[in-house]
């Protein structure tokens, strides 16, 4: 099975985690697109979705799935999203698709985070994938210097403006041994809107697409 087939496999498998009558939190990316397309076939059994990006909203609506605003819901039973990396305790790097801030906002509304990913995303230590960080443009150089001081090299994602009108720095060279601590530290830097470490909002479950089928990892 190639990577696209693995993404389609876990996208379909995630349907089992969508309760009857639910409003479901929906992430962003190519794996989530597979989930959205699979969800379309069962749209009668859900109330709708809360979306984490303009792109996912458009895809959901193109299938006739109702999209609710965050202020219209108090809690979501489940949030389904992909990841750029996931470690052995469910901590993730996210933001490859530049949607990290809204992804964290929607994840925060959900009782559980179901991560869907192909096996290439599973790592022992986060940090091989450059860490996305959404920044207010006037702080970009300043934040880049802070990363240099802890061994990271930050590059501006040229030509990308997020759904929130901000910029993305991609930071390479970090070995993120303590994701919770690093997330908390970077969150405090002025001008950082969101760091793509999802440790406080780590996955409860990961559906990992492998050539042998879907492997279910539970993180409690
Ligand atoms: O965080 C994300 C978008 O901001 C995505 O979940 C992440 O980049 C994985 O994407 P894909 O499913 O296309 O590999």
Characterize the largest beta sheet: strand count, sense, and whether it forms a barrel: 7 strands, mixed
Structural class: alpha/beta
Please, how many helices?
6
Instruction: State the assembly state of the protein chains.
Output: single chain
Uncertain stretches of 5 or more adjacent residues: none
Give an account of the 3D structure:
By secondary structure, this protein is of the alpha/beta class. The chain folds into two domains: 3-123 and 200-218, 3-Layer(aba) Sandwich (Rossmann fold), CATH 3.40.50; 131-195, ACT domain (Alpha-Beta Plaits), CATH 3.30.70. It has helices at 3-13, 30-40, 54-62, 100-109, 140-149, 179-187, and strands spanning 23-26, 48-51, 67-68, 79-81, 85-86, 92-93, 113-118, 131-135, 153-156, 167-172, 192-195, 197-198, 205-210, 213-218. The strands form three sheets. The protein has a seven-stranded mixed β-sheet with strand order 3-2-1-4-7-13-14, with helices on both faces. The chain has a four-stranded antiparallel β-sheet with strand order 9-10-8-11. It has a three-stranded antiparallel β-sheet with strand order 5-6-12, with helices on one face. Strand 1, helix 2 and strand 2 form a beta-alpha-beta unit. The longest helix is centred in the N-terminal third of the chain and has 11 residues, at 3-13. The relative contact order is 0.18. The structure holds ribulose-5-phosphate. The active site is at 103 (proton acceptor). Substrate binds at residues 28-31, 81-84, 94-97, 121. This is Ribose-5-phosphate isomerase A.
Features:
Ribose5P_isomerase_type_A, Ribose5P_isomerase_typA_subgr, 4-stranded antiparallel β-sheet, Rossmann fold, NagB/RpiA_transferase-like, binds ribulose-5-phosphate, single chain, EC 5.3.1.6, 14 strands, Ribose-5-phosphate isomerase A, alpha/beta, about 25% helix, Alpha-Beta Plaits
